[in-house]
Amino acid sequence: MSLRRYTYRAMQQRPGRSILTMLSIVIGVTAAVAVGLGTATTRNAYKQMFSIVTGRATLEVDAQGGGGFDEGVFEKIESLPVVTSATPLLDRPTSLSLENGERRIRMEILGIDPQRDQKVRDYDIVAGRQVNKGEELVLDEQFAKFIGVNIGDQVKMMTRQVTKRFQFEIVGLVRPKTGGIAQSAIGFMPLDRAQYHFNTTDKRRSIDKIQIVTKPEVDPAKAMPEVAALLPEGVAVHRPSGSTQLMQETLLSTEQGLTLTTLFSLLMAAFIILNTFLMNVSERRRQLSILRAIGSTKKQIFGMLLGESLLLGVIGTALGMLFGVLLAYFGTNLIARAFDVQFPHLREVATPQPFIVGALFGMIMAIMGAIVPAYLAGQVSPLEGMNRVTDIKKWNFTRLFLILGSVLTVGSLILIYGAIQSTVPMKSATYCAVTLLIGLVMLDTTMLGPQASLVARILRFFSRVEADMALRQVLRNHMRSALTVAVLFIAGSTGVGMASSIIDCVEDVHKWLKQAITADYIIRSMMPDMATGTSPDLPAELGDELKQIANIRIDEAAFVEAKVVRGKAADGELNDSLNCIAVARLYNDTAQLPSFDLIAGDPTRLREQITSGQVVIGSVLSQKTNLKMNDTLPLETREGVLQIPICGVANEYMVGGLAIHMDREHAKQWLDLDRIDGYMINAANDRVRDAIRPQLEALAKKYDVILMSQGDIRRTVDQFVKGTEWSLWLLVLTGFVVGAFGVVNTLTMNVLEQTRELGLLRIVAMTKTQVRRTIVMQALIIGLVGLPLGILFGVGVAYVINLAMMPSFGHPVEFNMHPRMLLGTLVGALMIVLVAAIIPARRATRINVVEALHYE
Q1: Based on the number of CB atoms within 10 Å of its own CB, is 645 exposed (0-12), middle (13-18) or buried (19 or more)?
Q2: CB–CB of 340/526 below 8 Å?
Q3: Deepest in the core among 25, 117, 664, 721, taking most CB within 10 A?
Q4: What digits encode the pLDDT tens for the residues 224-244?
Q5: Dist CA 275 CA 277 (whole Å)
Q6: How far apart are CA 296 and CA 301, in angstroms?
Q7: Distance (Å, rounded) from C-alpha 708 to C-alpha 127?
Q8: Residue 90's beta-bridge partner residues?
Q9: What pLDDT digit, counting tens, does each position of 785-813 carry?
Q10: Beta bridge partner(s), residue 104
Q11: Of residues 11, 201, 774, the one with CA closest to residue 460
Q12: Which residues sit opposite 564 in a β-bridge?
């Protein structure tokens, strides 16, 4: 007996139920694919940058403590027998000016030896030629297409040797041979011209790195001593790194937050899928029983339901993948525009993993959504199934849910506590949050009866008869009601937990901004890189002109990469180092205390301590190295590893929190600092602050740099914050809207099963208003059982998230209650639930009394 036609007919007769089932699968798959692709795009953007700089090099030579070294050592290294090829390199951040200076594009300039470079880096010249001499540039083909330039075009670039951006001609476009590097914001320039434009006069022969490709039969580790023997003091050889801790820390919090959000979305979608399939089977119970009675076997019924589920699963999974790709595309584009970076195209970084995860989730949940209801339906005899109502509650899972829920809840809490205490990997806490939620949902399900009865007693004050009828219907369909309550519980707990935690984080960022950025004006060549904090150097002439302005105090700032040693190997060689960013300033403004959001330290003594050679470290660096105030920081410098006293620990949001704040004069000694990334300007008073702005704007225009007042910075941060908050509330609203689908499903099924009862009640004088009120009461009981406890648990989620901020990210975030937000969420969610009750209520009032009496 073929049941295929019956399956199609059943789906066509109930398009709403089929669409809701498919949408629940779409939601979960979309979340999995979008987050997977978004994470891959941002991470690969950095990997591509590091990979194209590193090339095929197996060893790399650079100066300890940053800065450059004389290129004279290069020829000695190139002549070593163990070396196949080597090339010198100058690596500098800069910016291009396009569209008459209205558009700035951040990029990296690599000063290369054209004759040697392609022996280390694999790329093809696909248009034009390689750089030769003069002011010439070769750009990545996709990057050039992105910014809209081609061979022969002239572009302006920020350098340190001129008082304005210099003109460079694009002579070639390159394409990596491997295809793994695409749209990298990197350009090649002849080494001698790069040295002229980006080095100081006394360091024209200085380079940043020598990249070495050793012979295939030579172990690079064994070749290191031969290379090291030729190096001058302060220069070291090591294996090149494909990424940095700066990139890892920048992306860590975002990735974990997205992972947690994805898991919560998948969990909510799983409950909705199960609930929808269960109601789909329950609604068709009589038809399925008739099929059983006329000869269909349990196996055939099971196969029919499974095929229907697989069809919806395939369609939902395909749509989810499509929407996931679109969401990832628009999300990464927004991030790229916000941070002025270029991400690779999704097709270039897409891996099968997000699609595999999404497909597995969609299909597994479709199958599980069919197996459970089909099994339950198979337990009903054909005769019993033809009755108008079958008591679902006889399948009593109370004991199982009580035991399993208790185990999951207690076990998850223990592991989360261990993660906060750093005895368990923090990544495990993300998954424990989901298991904790599942455990609490199971426990809450066992308490549905007492909770619903309590809510009904309260509602009796408004309408006694309707409240009693609503309670009876909710409890009669225990499993269906419990699943709907679970969806609302998850929506409330995840929405409130994420909302409360993000609000606390936003307030913490505002607090940090108020204490860390106190200058009236800041001048930089362009917005800093989000991972390193660096930006192109400012011309020296700009500083000279700033010093001519009266009644202002100027502080010079520079960001330079530094390394903190975390351990040594048995032979005494450096074994493990942490890449950080040294923030060097003058600290010469005696009119105010140094600007730090201190966790530990004496603010009244900081200036004296820093200028004497001590440092303040970021909270993330403190957490990563387990170094506190009064400890010493093992900093890798040109003089070797120095133990620098730590005079304070500050909450830090720049450069992933891996910041070392130090005096500029000491930074010159330790790290060979010779540039200025930004000027911080404070006026003597408010009148002077307003009066000097036109002068500063004129200088910014002359030197093609960015001028931002403190108000401008706050407005920029507020803009990002508002975008975050809107995204947050959209996430919360989406969760409750998804929960509303479950309410609509539940109430619609209740109305169908109450058709004959409602018809009889209408005959004995029950009005349409009373019918409508009964359905609304059912919605209120379900909402008031699931939402308040979910919101209360959400507060606990927020508290745990804030506790985990310091051990996981190095940012201590104070927990705060937000009563207005909690009340607004509860009221808003209840309004959504009541709106969801409108359709079932209208359907109930339109029941034909005569037809209802014959309804079975």
Answers
A1: middle
A2: yes
A3: 25
A4: 889 988 988 878 888 775 444
A5: 6
A6: 7
A7: 40
A8: 111
A9: 888 888 888 888 788 777 766 665 666 77
A10: 97
A11: 774
A12: 578, 635
Cα–Cα distance, 182 to 171 (Å, whole number): 19
Triad 584, 587, 589: Cα angle to 5°: 145
What percent of the chain is modeled with pLDDT above 90?
5
The residue among 826, 838, 828 whose CA lies nearest residue 747 is: 838
Angle in degrees, CA 587, 589, 593, rounded to 5: 80
Lowest mean pLDDT among 59-63, 134-138, 379-383, 839-843: 379-383
Q: What is the C-alpha to C-alpha distance for residues 786 and 303, in angstroms, rounded to an integer?
A: 34
Instruction: Classify the C-alpha dihedral 456-457-458-461 as positive or negative.
Output: positive
Question: Nearest CA to 790 among 477, 504, 443?
Answer: 443
User: Shortest CA distance to 665 belongs to which of 657, 674, 653, 656?
Assistant: 674
Q: Report the distance separating Cα 68 and Cα 61, nearest Å.
A: 10
Tokens of 682: 């404070």
CA atoms within 13 A on the CB side of 821: 23
Contact by Cβ (8 Å): 128, 170: yes
User: Which SS3 state, helix, strand or coil, does residue 566 take?
Assistant: strand
Biggest CA-to-CA distance, the chain: 105
Residue type for 106, please?
R
Return the H-helix or E-strand segment holding 214.
Answer: strand 209-214
Q: What is the DSSP string of 368-418?
A: HHHHHHHHHHHTS-HHHHTSS---GGGS--HHHHHHHHHHHHHHHHHHHHH
Structure tokens at 390: 């079958």
Which amino acid makes up residue 82? V
Judged on CB neighbours under 10 Å (0-12, 13-18, 19+), 817 is: exposed
Element (H, E) at 155: strand 154-157
Single pTM value for the model: 0.64
Token digits of residue 196: 């002229």
Backbone phi, psi, residue 684, to 5°: -65, -35
